[in-house]
Amino acid sequence: MTSTINADPAELAKFSELAHRWWDLESEFKPLHQINPLRLGWIQSFVPLANNRLVDIGCGGGILADAAARQGAEVLGIDLSTKALRVAQLHAMEAETTGVTYREVSAETLAIEAPAAFDVVTCMEMLEHVPDPASVVMSCAQMVKPGGWVFFSTLNRNPMSFIQAIVGAEYVLKLLPKGTHEYAKMIRPSELAHFCQAAGLDLKATKGLGYNPITGKYSLNNSTQVNYLFATQRPFE
Fold first, then answer.
1. Residues annotated within a binding site
2. How far from chain centre, in Å, is Cα 72?
3. Which of 31, 79, 182, 203 suits 235 as a labelling partner, its CA being 20 to 30 A distant?
4. Contact at 8 Å (CB) between 123 and 232?
5. Does 2 reside within a domain?
6. Number of structural domains the chain divides into
7. The domain containing residue 44 runs over which residues?
8. How deeply is 226 buried, as exposed, middle or buried, from its count of CB atoms within 10 A (0-12, 13-18, 19+)?
9. Residue 110 falls inside a structural domain
10. Which stretches in the chain have pLDDT values below 50?
11. What is the pTM assigned to this prediction?
12. 113 vs 93: CA distance, rounded Å
């Protein structure tokens, strides 16, 4: 596990600059709002969120954390962007969302503070933005209870994902700001599976996420070529 803060200062600065736009449904974060019901529904196909403790790693402005709390989960959202967390807290107050709190803390630190403390751990669209994704996966595994679930979503690293996620999404369709993703930081499913195995997590299911530029709609599919999700479980002891 990394002994220093597992974060890229440039990545934190990039998202901090956009923090005030997290809850603007027509902003750079529109895709996250659009895919949120899909990923939330997929998570709940494995584990009910009501009355469960959930931690959202790299929560940003709280899009997933807020939605999970509205499903009845007791949610902690963590991030290292002070501005994003302030936006998340302000939105929770304005929307009167109960059951969600936010902390500025790294996954590695929280894993030490709260081992086996959560029923569900989510780490969505975050691993491709940190220097050491394996360390985050290990921390997620340490935070979840035996029998609990850990969910990841990230971007594959191959020519198709470069064309679709960077050239297409950032430069042609302009769904995301230029520079949102770096090709070298994308993670192949085989690599993430190895991280999970090393952390003691059992991979239970994978899913793909696709975008139709004609309809402007996202949907879940069975291809992990570009955006993909992992459902993993910590074995019962």
1. 39, 58, 79, 124
2. 19
3. 79
4. no
5. no
6. 1
7. 9-233
8. buried
9. yes
10. 1-3
11. 0.91
12. 27
